[in-house]
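#structure-requests
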Amino acid sequence: MKPRSPGPNGRVVSFLDMGTNSLRLLVVRLNPNHSYTILTRQKQQVRLGEGEFEDEEITPQAMERAAIVAKRFTDLARTFSSEEFVAVATSAAREASNQNELLHLLRQEAQIDIRVISGREEARLIYLGVASGTNLITTPVFFIDIGGGSTEIAIGDAADYQYLDSFKLGAIRLSNLYNTPDDTGPLSPEQYRKIQQHVRNVIIHSLEKIRKLRPASAIGSSGSIMNLAEIAQKALHPGADSSDAAVLTYKDLKKVIDLLCSLPLEQRRKVPGINPERADIIIAGAAILEVFMKELCLDVIATTGRGLQDGLLVDYLSRMDNFPLLGELSSRQRSVLQLGRSCGINEVHARTVTSLVLEMFDSAREQKLHDFSDLDRELLEYATFLHDIGSFISYTNHHAHSYYIIKNSELLGFDQKEVTFMATLAKFHRKKTPKKKDLDISDLDMREREALKVLSTFIRLGESLDRSHAALIQHVRFARVEKETVHLEIVARGDCQLEIWGIESERRSFEKVFGRNLVFEVINPALP
C-alpha cells in the first residue's frame, strides 16, 4: 500500500524492528517539503531468541520481555503523536512454532501489528539502509549483518543489489548450539574450530556465487561487528584515534578472537571496548565474520550503525509520490538536501549561490588560479548549499551557527574530516577570513588550509553575487588572469547594484588570497 503523503503540518511515523537480540524504535516526522526529522532512536536488548533454536519455540519469559519493551516503545512513539507504525520481526519470530502467540501478545499489549519478514526481505532492507547512507567508492560491495539468529548478506552498489542471501547463522543461535548456560570458561581451540566449520558448511553454496561477483570492499552493519571493531581499537590499539573503530582488519579480528577465547566469561565482560551484554555471544558472531572474511579474502571491513531500521524508512519513503531525496541522488546529496530542508534553508538562494560558486571554481581552475581536485569541488558544493543553514537558529552570527549544525549533524556518506572541512568552509562565508590562529583550522594540514582560504573566498564572492536573494546574477567566470590582475565577468539581469557593492567589499580578501587585483565587468544582455 502506498504511504500517505504528509499534510501541511507533516506527519509522524514510527518504525520498529524486533530482532532476535534487540528491539529497535525509530520515530520520524515527515515534513511537508519532503524532508524528514528523526525524533528519537531507541534500542533495548530483549533476547527474544534465547533458548529458542533447539525446540523452535520462543520462551514465555522472552515473549514477556518483548511485550514489555514493545509497549514502552509504542507509548513513547505516541507521545510524539505517531500516526502510523511500521513494524517487522525477523529470525526468532519467523522460525518460532508459537509465532502467532507472540504476535497476538504484541497486538494486545502494544496495539501494533508486526509483519514477520523472510530472510531475503531482511537482507534487502539491510542493503537499503546501509547503501542509502554510505558513499560507495569501490563497487560491487559485500554487505553483511550478523544478527542474533541469522546472518544476511548482499552484493550491490549505490544503485541496486545483485545478490541477496540469508543464513541460519547468528550470535545467539550458535552460542546456544555450542555452549550451555554452564559454559562460562574460556573457549578451547577445538570448540572454536567446530563453530568455524559449522559456518563454512552453511555458507558453502553461497560462497561460489559471491566470489563470481568479485566484491571490491565490505561493510558490516550489525552490533556484533561494530563491537568487535571497538574492541580491536580499544584493546589492541589504546590511544588511537576513535575513528579507527570505523574499520576492522582481518588481522585485528584474529587477535580479538584469540583474546576473547582465552578468557572466562566474567573476564571477557571486562575487555576494553566490549559491550558486557554481548560477552556471552560475541565469539560466535566473530566466528561468522572471520569465516566470511577469510573465504572471500577480505583484508578489511568498514562498519556502520545503519541497518534494517534505516532500510524500513528508505523503503517507506521510496513508495511515496515524488519523494525527491531518493532516486538518482547519491547518499551524500540526499543527506545534504535532507539536512538543509529539515532546517528550512532558502533553497532558491542556496542553489543560486552554489551554481555561481561552482562556475568560479571551474573557471579559476581553467585559468590556473588553483589546482584543487574534483573531491574539493564536491565538498565546496555541499558546504555552499548549507552555508546559511545557521539562520535556522538566528541570523545574528549565523555563520557560526552553520558551523555548529554541520559539524554536529549526521551527514551520511561523509567521514568526520570531510564534515569538519565543510563546516569550516561554511563558517568563513562571511565576517572574518580564515587565519592561522583560528582554532577551527589548527588541525588542518598545509594543503587543507590553503584549500580553505581559496574555497571560502569563492563562497564569499558567491554570497555577494546574490546579496538581494533575487537571482539577478545568471553566470560568473574568471575570464582572464594577468600577472597582477584577475578579470571576472558577471552576467546579470536587471539592476544588481547591491551585488556590485558586495563584490567590491570582497576585493581586499580576494587580493590577499590570490596576490592579484580583482577587476570585474558586469554584462547585462537586457540593456542596450
